[in-house]
Amino acid sequence: MSLIVQKFGGTSVADVEKIRAAARKAIRAQKQGHRVVMVVSAMGKNTDLLLKLAGDVSQSPPAREMDMLLSTGEQVSVALVAMAIDDLGSKAVSLTGGQIGMKTDDSFSKARIQSISTERIERLLDDGNIVVAAGFQGIDDDLNITTLGRGGSDTTAVALASVLGASACEIYTDVDGVYTTDPRLLPEARRVDVISYDEMLELASLGAGVMHNRSIEFAKKFNVPIHVRSSFSDAEGTMIVAETESKTAPVCGAAMTPNEARVTVLGVPDVPGKSLQVFSAIAEKKIAVDMVVQNVGRKGRADISFTVRQDDLKLTLAALDKVLPAIGADAVTFDDQVSKVSVVGVNMADQTNVASTMFRALADANVNIQMITTSEIKISTLVPRAEAGAALRAVHEVFRLHEKPADAKSWDQIRAERGETADLDTLVSRLQDDALEALTLTGISLTKHQARVTLYGVPDEPGIAADMFETIGQAKIFVDMIVQGYDGEDGSTSVSFTVDESDLKQSLEVAVAIREKHGMRDIQDGSDIAKITVSGIGLRSHTHVATVLFKQLADLGINIEMIGTSELQVNAVISATNSDKALERLSAAFAASLEAGR
Ligand code: ASP
Ligand code: MG
């Protein structure tokens, strides 16, 4: 008999009527012949209320007590849902995180799942019960209650679906699926029928707000299909499945993160280990750094720019202030009036074209791009906040995201084509050994024979990036990574891109033409470079990846010239000298994670 997991978010159990409606959905699924496990969040805004209560009692509530408190929200709702099912004449048993054997590490408020024991759930299901499990919570080795972080019930649900070998994980929520962009920001946003794990991961981390990021990591690792749908209707929503099954357009979605801040550390001595110093000072404060652009050094100095959330700006500046003398950098500048606009798509094969199309759309909307970073499935731009809305609209429009792609696969097609994951059991039993949510790497590789072109003194005005990459695209040069960052020297920007070594000569010719046309200061190229790529699942939620990378490279005296990160890969462009050594060192440093992804 097939098993399904149904997760109900806070809004879906916000009051008595909604609790009964949720109960009816589960009963109906059971009557249709499924074994049913429900995962339930705290009712409505209860978690927020509990947080506020804690804040009123104490200025800094101990993390352990915070988790003890917050976990009660889910305990209330599972009991009520089980009662509702009983009242409707079916059998149900509610269970806390501890009772489902949800074992986590002991990082309160952001605990990671290590293992789940399934026997008790299986036994209750065998007896004809609907099992109602509390989302968001677990226990550590000492039986302390832990929580997984805000929105963590999604992760509970997908994790349970994984270890129970569920045929699907249904996420019932107050929206009816995943949209091409946030419909509150852009009314023409379109609900998509199907999206891939990779795209969803990227959109979720860009603030799409629909699903907890770590839940998608689980789904991808264990190949669990997710169905995001409205709890207030029976309409089908969005199915999140593997990339091979989804077949989406080159660009599947756009996202805007409004409240970003740019920070630039000017005049960082261009010697290995300096970026490590900058970023470990920030990591120590648990601040997430997003777009990172290190300008290629000149006169022995480089500028490092990155973005953080606007809320984290103060703390970031304070952390930098402390280490600036030790680093020997000149100064720090910032801009707290910026937003990030990105496009995502796993089928961005012709990235030069996608990039220039995006830049042209922004130019036509008179939006000035301040920073650019790219990864294999994403292009992100930093723009003035006042122009961010127009930017999102322009990008959504140019990729025709409001229109359903003609060759989109249907739901039924995907269902029919979907095979069983042959070795799911082995995978689960291997990772059940305390490693369910560990970083799993699928590979670390080196691409040699790369070359870089950097243009300095790029005027900071709309249209330049568009012109540049259109010209490069017309020359049929395939560009891999693109970064644009602040150029401390005169407040203009610098743009770097990488190409295959064999395309360098032609790229330089194009660059010279562009420099002439726009009156740029200087061109530089580097040819003895390589790209090192770390691929896997959980690269961004496990924040130590970048630090380990920086550390290993610094130890070898290797400078990082460019860096691009996504949910799936971290790419660093380094000099080819010593790059084999770097590969070796990184493979050793990440041995356990590579083993987990084997
Ligand atoms: N109740 C928790 C929260 O509000 C967990 C969840 O809803 O997923 O964050
Ligand atoms: Mg929630």
UniProtKB/TrEMBL annotation:
Q: In which pathway does it act?
A: Amino-acid biosynthesis; L-lysine biosynthesis via DAP pathway; (S)-tetrahydrodipicolinate from L-aspartate: step 1/4; Amino-acid biosynthesis; L-threonine biosynthesis; L-threonine from L-aspartate: step 1/5; Amino-acid biosynthesis; L-methionine biosynthesis via de novo pathway; L-homoserine from L-aspartate: step 1/3
List the EC numbers from the record. Answer: 2.7.2.4
**Where do the ACT domain residues begin and end?**
263-346, 453-537
**SUPFAM superfamilies referenced in this protein's UniProt entry, alphabetically:** ACT-like, Carbamate kinase-like
Catalytic activity field: L-aspartate + ATP = 4-phospho-L-aspartate + ADP
Q: Which GO terms describe its molecular function?
A: aspartate kinase activity; ATP binding
What top-tier enzyme class does this entry carry?
A: transferase
From its record, what is one biological process in GO terms? threonine biosynthetic process
Task: Name the InterPro entries for this protein.
Answer: AceGlu_kinase-like_sf, ACT-like_dom_sf, ACT_Aspartokinase, ACT_dom, AKii-LysC-BS, Asp/Glu/Uridylate_kinase, Asp_kin_monofn, Asp_kinase
Provide a GO CC annotation, any one: cytosol
Task: Give the Pfam families listed for this entry.
Answer: AA_kinase, ACT_9
Q: What's in the keyword line of the UniProt record?
A: Amino-acid biosynthesis, ATP-binding, Kinase, Lysine biosynthesis, Nucleotide-binding, Repeat, Transferase
Could you confirm whether the keyword ATP-binding appears in this record? yes
Give the matching PANTHER family: ASPARTATE KINASE, ASPARTOKINASE
Instruction: Give the family this protein belongs to, as stated in its UniProt record.
Output: Belongs to the aspartokinase family.
Q: Would you tell me the protein name for this molecule?
A: aspartate kinase
Q: List the top taxonomic levels of the source.
A: Bacteria, Pseudomonadati, Planctomycetota, Planctomycetia, Pirellulales
Gene this chain is encoded by: ask
